[in-house]
Design brief:
The chain is an alpha/beta fold. The chain has seven helices and six strands. It has one domain: 3-Layer(aba) Sandwich (Rossmann fold). About 35% of the residues are buried.
Length: about 170
Protein backbone atom coordinates (compact mmCIF):
# COMPACT_ATOMS: atom_id res chain seq x y z
CA UNK A 1 0.00 0.00 0.00
CA UNK A 2 1.41 3.39 -0.98
CA UNK A 3 0.91 6.13 1.56
CA UNK A 4 0.20 9.50 0.02
CA UNK A 5 0.88 13.02 1.19
CA UNK A 6 -2.30 15.07 1.49
CA UNK A 7 -2.55 18.79 2.17
CA UNK A 8 -5.73 20.54 3.30
CA UNK A 9 -5.31 24.30 3.06
CA UNK A 10 -7.21 27.47 2.18
CA UNK A 11 -9.20 30.14 3.99
CA UNK A 12 -12.43 28.14 4.22
CA UNK A 13 -13.59 26.01 7.11
CA UNK A 14 -13.19 22.24 7.19
CA UNK A 15 -9.47 21.47 7.05
CA UNK A 16 -9.25 19.92 10.50
CA UNK A 17 -12.66 18.32 10.09
CA UNK A 18 -11.54 16.62 6.87
CA UNK A 19 -8.37 15.33 8.53
CA UNK A 20 -10.30 14.03 11.55
CA UNK A 21 -12.79 12.35 9.24
CA UNK A 22 -9.93 10.59 7.50
CA UNK A 23 -8.57 9.54 10.92
CA UNK A 24 -11.91 8.04 11.93
CA UNK A 25 -12.26 6.21 8.61
CA UNK A 26 -8.73 4.83 9.03
CA UNK A 27 -9.53 3.67 12.58
CA UNK A 28 -12.70 2.05 11.25
CA UNK A 29 -10.47 0.03 8.93
CA UNK A 30 -8.27 -0.97 11.89
CA UNK A 31 -5.42 1.39 11.02
CA UNK A 32 -3.43 3.30 13.65
CA UNK A 33 -3.34 7.08 13.50
CA UNK A 34 -1.07 9.67 15.12
CA UNK A 35 -2.28 13.27 15.23
CA UNK A 36 0.15 16.04 16.12
CA UNK A 37 -1.79 19.22 16.85
CA UNK A 38 0.45 22.23 16.42
CA UNK A 39 -0.60 25.47 18.13
CA UNK A 40 -3.57 23.98 20.04
CA UNK A 41 -3.61 23.03 23.69
CA UNK A 42 -6.65 21.98 25.68
CA UNK A 43 -9.72 19.78 25.76
CA UNK A 44 -11.28 20.70 22.43
CA UNK A 45 -14.37 18.79 21.33
CA UNK A 46 -12.37 16.70 18.87
CA UNK A 47 -10.06 15.58 21.69
CA UNK A 48 -13.04 14.44 23.72
CA UNK A 49 -14.58 12.61 20.75
CA UNK A 50 -11.35 10.92 19.69
CA UNK A 51 -10.86 9.45 23.17
CA UNK A 52 -13.46 6.89 22.08
CA UNK A 53 -10.88 5.62 19.58
CA UNK A 54 -7.81 5.88 21.81
CA UNK A 55 -6.74 2.33 21.00
CA UNK A 56 -6.28 3.38 17.35
CA UNK A 57 -5.98 7.19 17.33
CA UNK A 58 -3.36 8.95 19.42
CA UNK A 59 -3.50 12.75 19.71
CA UNK A 60 -0.73 14.90 21.13
CA UNK A 61 -0.75 18.68 21.35
CA UNK A 62 2.32 20.82 20.76
CA UNK A 63 1.04 24.30 21.38
CA UNK A 64 0.75 26.65 24.30
CA UNK A 65 -2.96 27.34 23.76
CA UNK A 66 -2.63 31.05 23.22
CA UNK A 67 -2.79 33.39 20.26
CA UNK A 68 0.63 34.15 18.83
CA UNK A 69 1.07 37.72 17.66
CA UNK A 70 4.43 38.86 16.37
CA UNK A 71 7.52 36.82 17.11
CA UNK A 72 6.76 33.51 18.87
CA UNK A 73 8.35 32.86 22.26
CA UNK A 74 11.13 30.35 22.76
CA UNK A 75 8.67 28.05 24.59
CA UNK A 76 6.24 28.19 21.63
CA UNK A 77 9.06 27.24 19.26
CA UNK A 78 10.24 24.46 21.59
CA UNK A 79 6.70 23.01 21.75
CA UNK A 80 6.54 22.92 17.92
CA UNK A 81 10.02 21.38 17.76
CA UNK A 82 8.81 18.58 20.06
CA UNK A 83 5.91 18.05 17.69
CA UNK A 84 8.26 17.68 14.73
CA UNK A 85 10.32 15.13 16.66
CA UNK A 86 7.18 13.19 17.65
CA UNK A 87 6.06 13.04 14.01
CA UNK A 88 9.46 11.64 13.04
CA UNK A 89 9.22 9.14 15.92
CA UNK A 90 5.76 8.09 14.69
CA UNK A 91 7.36 7.30 11.33
CA UNK A 92 10.27 5.34 12.75
CA UNK A 93 8.14 3.40 15.25
CA UNK A 94 6.34 1.65 12.40
CA UNK A 95 3.19 1.67 14.55
CA UNK A 96 1.17 4.26 12.65
CA UNK A 97 -0.44 3.99 9.24
CA UNK A 98 -1.62 7.61 9.14
CA UNK A 99 0.14 10.67 10.55
CA UNK A 100 -1.65 14.02 10.68
CA UNK A 101 0.14 17.32 11.24
CA UNK A 102 -2.77 19.53 12.18
CA UNK A 103 -2.18 23.28 11.67
CA UNK A 104 1.44 22.66 10.61
CA UNK A 105 1.11 25.16 7.76
CA UNK A 106 -0.02 27.84 10.21
CA UNK A 107 2.80 26.90 12.60
CA UNK A 108 5.27 27.40 9.74
CA UNK A 109 3.68 30.72 8.83
CA UNK A 110 4.08 31.91 12.42
CA UNK A 111 7.72 30.84 12.59
CA UNK A 112 7.16 28.00 15.08
CA UNK A 113 8.77 25.61 12.62
CA UNK A 114 10.08 26.12 9.13
CA UNK A 115 8.72 25.12 5.76
CA UNK A 116 11.99 23.20 5.39
CA UNK A 117 11.05 21.19 8.51
CA UNK A 118 7.80 20.15 6.82
CA UNK A 119 9.54 19.39 3.51
CA UNK A 120 12.06 17.20 5.34
CA UNK A 121 9.23 15.32 7.06
CA UNK A 122 7.62 14.82 3.65
CA UNK A 123 10.93 13.38 2.40
CA UNK A 124 11.33 11.10 5.44
CA UNK A 125 7.78 9.72 5.31
CA UNK A 126 7.83 5.94 4.96
CA UNK A 127 6.35 4.71 1.68
CA UNK A 128 3.44 2.96 3.37
CA UNK A 129 2.38 5.79 5.72
CA UNK A 130 -0.25 8.37 4.79
CA UNK A 131 0.76 11.92 5.80
CA UNK A 132 -1.81 14.69 6.13
CA UNK A 133 -0.78 18.33 6.63
CA UNK A 134 -3.45 20.89 7.46
CA UNK A 135 -3.66 24.63 7.89
CA UNK A 136 -4.19 27.71 5.82
CA UNK A 137 -1.28 29.25 3.97
CA UNK A 138 0.46 26.13 2.69
CA UNK A 139 3.77 27.08 1.07
CA UNK A 140 3.96 26.48 -2.69
CA UNK A 141 6.82 23.99 -2.17
CA UNK A 142 4.63 21.88 0.14
CA UNK A 143 1.79 22.02 -2.38
CA UNK A 144 4.14 20.98 -5.20
CA UNK A 145 5.54 18.01 -3.25
CA UNK A 146 2.14 16.69 -2.06
CA UNK A 147 0.20 13.99 -3.90
CA UNK A 148 -3.22 15.47 -3.15
CA UNK A 149 -4.03 19.07 -2.27
CA UNK A 150 -7.45 20.30 -1.28
CA UNK A 151 -8.12 24.01 -0.92
CA UNK A 152 -11.04 24.89 1.32
CA UNK A 153 -12.52 28.03 -0.20
CA UNK A 154 -14.49 30.54 1.82
CA UNK A 155 -17.73 31.17 -0.04
CA UNK A 156 -20.15 32.07 2.74
CA UNK A 157 -19.14 32.07 6.38
CA UNK A 158 -21.74 34.32 7.96
CA UNK A 159 -23.95 32.64 10.50
CA UNK A 160 -25.59 33.50 13.78
CA UNK A 161 -24.56 31.82 16.99
CA UNK A 162 -26.30 28.53 17.55
CA UNK A 163 -25.73 24.82 17.19
CA UNK A 164 -22.60 25.42 19.26
CA UNK A 165 -21.56 28.17 16.83
CA UNK A 166 -22.14 25.97 13.82
CA UNK A 167 -20.00 23.17 15.16
CA UNK A 168 -16.96 25.37 15.65
CA UNK A 169 -18.11 24.48 19.22
CA UNK A 170 -18.31 27.93 20.74
CA UNK A 171 -16.49 28.65 23.93
Amino acid sequence: MKGYIQVYTGNGKGKTTAALGLAIRAAGAGLKVFIAQFIKMGEYSEIKALKRFEDLIKVEQFGKGRFIKGKPSASDIEAARKGVEKVKAAFTSGQHNVVIMEEANVAAGLGLLSVDDILKIMDEKPKDVELVITGRGADSRIIEKADLVTEMKEIKHYFQKGVKARIGIEK
